[in-house]
Amino acid sequence: MDILSPQSQAGTRLAHVGRQPIFDSTGDVVAYELLFRGSTNAVTATRRDAYATSEVIVNTFTEFGIEEVVGDRLCFINLTRDFLVGDLALPFGPDNVVLEVLETVDVCDDVIAGVAALVEQGYSIALDDFVWGSGHERLLSFASYVKLDLLDLDRSHLDEVVAACRAYPGIQIVAEGLETGEHLALCNSYGFELRQGYVLSRPQVLTASSIAPSKLRRLELLSALCAAEPDLDRIISAVVGDPALTIRVLRASNSVAAGSTSRVSSVRQAVVLLGVTQIRRWAVLMVVEDITEAAESQLIEALTRARLCQILAPKFGAHPDAGFMAGLITAVAELLGVSAASMAHRLPLTADIEGALERGAGPLGQMLRVVGAYQRGDVGQAAAAYEADNLTRAVMEAMRWASQAVHSSHGPYCASS
C-alpha cells in the first residue's frame, strides 16, 4: 500500500507502525525493529502490551505489507507473554522474523516452554534489554540475539554480561540505546555485531490510511472460524460482508508470511489459500486490536459497487467473481484516497483483474468504466454501453443486497464469491 499523508478520508482510520534500523559494524542496515506508535508524530510507544503487539503485526502484514516495511531485511517484533506461551498465536511464519522477548516478561517455566516451542518451529529469538539476574539468562540457550542497552546498562558488569553471552557461540549481540560517539567506540572495543540507537538513526513512523472494519463482522468471522467444524460458506459470508476484511484477507494471502505467490480471482480462493488456521489467527489479532467501526453508509456504497460489478460482469464476458473483486477494490481504493492501480499492485490478483484496475484493460475494464460513469451521474454514457433499463434494475438489486449485507446479523452469502 502507498504510504499516505496523515489525512484520512471519512470512514477510514490511520494505521501506524514505527520502524528503527539495526546496523551491522560496517554501517549497513541489516534489520528493522518494528514498534508500536499511536500517531504519526509519536516519538515513543505509549504501550507495550498485547494490544500494541497485535496492532504492529496487523498493520505491518495487512495494511502496509511486510515487504513495504522491511523489504528483504530481518524484522524484530516485540512479543508479550501472551504470544510467547501461545495464548495468542502468531499468524506469520519464521522466515525473516526475529521475536523479541520483552524485558518486562516474567520468565517462568511456561514462558521457557513457549520459547522452546517457537525455536523448534524455526523462529529466531532476541532477548530485549538483557540484564543478568533478571531471570532472562534462563533463555540464553534459545536466543540468537541479545540486546544490551548501553544507555541504561550498569557498565561495571558489562564484561561479565558479554562473557556470559559469548559462552553461546550462536548469539549475536545488538548494542542499543546508542546516543554518543563514546557508545559507538564501546561497540567497537567489544566487537558487538549489531548496533541500534539515535546516534545512528531515529525511528521513522510509517502512516497509511485504511478502511475501518466492522467489529460485528470480525466477531462473526471469529465465531465461524472457531466452530468445531468450520463452515467454509459461513466464513466467506463474514469476509465478503465487510470490504476491510476482504482486503485484509487478500493482503494476508499475498504476505510473505503466507508462504505463497498464488494469484486469486475470488474471496473463496483467498480463504482457501490461507486456510482456516491462518485466518483464525488474523481474526483474533483484529479483535484484540479493536479497530473503530466503519461508517455504515460507506460500507453499503462499497458493497453496492462490488455487487453491481458482479451482476454486470457476465454481460461483458467476464466471470462474476472477478467482477465482484474488481468492483470492491475500486470502491475501497476511493475510501482510502489511493488509486485502484496502486492497490492492485499490492494484491495477489489474476492478470485480468490486475489489467482492468491498472490499465482499464479487457472486459473487466470496460465494465468498470460503465459502472464508474453511472456512479458519476453520467447515465447517458453508461446507457450507451449497456441497456439503461437493465442497468437501473441491476443497480437497485445491488443496493438491496448491500444494505442487507451490512444490516444482517449473520452477514450475506453470495454463492459465487
TrEMBL record:
Question: Which stretches are transmembrane?
Answer: none
- PROSITE patterns, per the entry: EAL (PS50883), HDOD (PS51833)
List, for all copies, the residue spans of the domain called EAL: 1-217
Annotated HDOD domain residues: 211-405
Organism's domain of life?
A: Bacteria
SUPFAM superfamilies the record matches? EAL domain-like (SSF141868), HD-domain/PDEase-like (SSF109604)
Per its record, how is this protein called by name?
HDOD domain-containing protein
- Lineage, opening ranks: Bacteria, Bacillati, Actinomycetota, Actinomycetes, Micromonosporales
